[in-house]
Design a protein that fits this description.
Elements (H helix, E strand, L loop, with lengths): L10 H4 L2 H15 L8 H5 L14 E2 L11 H4 L14 H5 L9 E6 L5 E4 H7 L3 E8 L4 E11 H7 L8 E6 L19 E5 H4 L5 E6 L2 E2 L9 E3 L12 E7 L6 H5 L23 E4 L9 E2 L7 H4 L13
Parallel strand pairs: 1-4, 2-11, 5-12
Antiparallel strand pairs: 2-3, 4-5, 5-8, 6-7, 6-11, 8-9, 8-10, 12-13
The chain binds ligand MTE.
Ligand MTE binds next to loops.
Length: about 325
């Protein structure tokens, strides 16, 4: 069982000490009255709105796992983000090309209040939590990430989805000037993903704005990316600019490219192998190629919370 209750988690256990110490320094600066102006909002805005800037007032979450987070350096240098290159090291190398301010997200489709919301408003309006989740990739590697973000449901509710909204579709920025990978048709750009409405509204589903207490680096999907801890990593669409409520199942990039390898549901499932490799176990990034593989748990260990979403579905068919 992966989940800890909030009072089981001492704050000091959640982020490395260095991050914690910096957070406390910032808090002290604010309280020492560098002025009333140095509140949470000020820490988030202005020139600080860059990757690596601290996010203020991050609360621990009861949904965190008790696993030790992977080192920050590894989380930010071994990435899948084909818009910034197809090698694992490319996204970090090309990260500076993606400018994430200003940034707006359009929310539309089957809802009563379609609109546009800017990233600064998102950071200000939705209380930010730290949630330590494992990211399990279909290539059978995994890392444990101290994400910062908030439940996707909170944002979706603001736009008042109607009863027609059966799915939620997501789209990454399309801008070949800033995203060099989009100058070649490696994928059918823009990258798209989708969730069923009940998956999207589930309290474990989050929009991440940061990791290790700081704004997301571009290579990890700044300024806003999806994290669904019981699904394979490719559902975690990065650098989102559009969210659409739909009546029909929306297109998802990898599913449309290779439907026999990447199902729309993409639930972590050791019983359903990828056509080219087993999904029974995985390797933790940072432990080396010869480290013992770990058994992969169904729904990545979140079965108690999410199995009911798929009651009656044949998960070998809807993989
Ligand atoms: N989102 C976009 N826009 N483009 C991508 O290539 N790759 C996906 C997902 N989101 C991808 C994406 C895959 S395959 C994985 S495993 C995760 O991002 C990796 O997230 P990370 O780089 O933060 O580890």
């Amino acid at each position: 069982m992966l989940i800890k209750r909030p009072n089981d988690i001492p704050a000091s256990e959640i982020t490395p000490q260095s991050v914690y110490l910096r957070r406390r320094e910032l808090l002290r600066a604010a309280m020492a009255g560098v002025g009333a102006a140095v509140g949470g909002a000020a820490l988030l805005s202005a020139p600080a709105a860059r990757a690596g800037a601290p996010i203020a007032d991050v609360r621990p979450s009861r949904f965190s796992t008790d696993e030790t987070p992977t080192e920050r350096e590894l989380i930010t240098s071994y990435n899948n983000f084909y818009e910034l290159g197809t090698d694992k090291g490319d996204p970090k190398r090309n990260a500076a090309q993606l400018q994430t301010r200003p940034w707006q997200v359009v929310v539309e489709g089957a809802c009563e209040a379609p609109g546009v919301i800017g990233i600064e408003d998102i950071l200000r309006d939705f209380p930010q939590e730290e949630r330590i989740y494992r990211l399990r990739c279909v290539e059978a590697w995994a890392m444990v990430v101290p994400w910062v973000g908030f439940p996707l449901a909170a944002l979706l509710k603001r736009f008042k989805p109607t009863s027609q909204a059966k799915y939620v579709a997501f789209e990454t920025l399309y801008d070949p000037k800033m995203l060099p990978g989009q100058r070649r048709r490696v994928l059918d750009w823009p990258y798209r993903e989708g969730l069923r409405m009940d998956e999207a509204m589930h309290p474990l589903t989050m929009l991440a704005t940061g990791l290790y207490g700081e704004l997301l680096p571009s290579q990890n999907g700044a300024p806003l990316r999806l994290v669904v801890p019981w699904k394979y990593g490719f559902k975690s669409i990065k650098s989102i600019v559009r969210i659409t409520f739909t009546e029909d199942e929306p297109p998802a990039t990898w599913n449309r490219m290779q439907p026999n390898e990447y199902g729309f549901y993409a639930n972590v499932n050791p019983d359903v192998d990828h056509p080219r490799w087993s999904q029974k176990s995985h390797r933790m990034i940072g432990e080396g190629l010869f480290a013992r593989k770990r058994p992969t748990l169904k729904f990545n260990g979140y079965g108690e919370q999410v199995a009911a979403l798929y009651a009656g579905m044949d998960l070998a068919k809807f993989y």
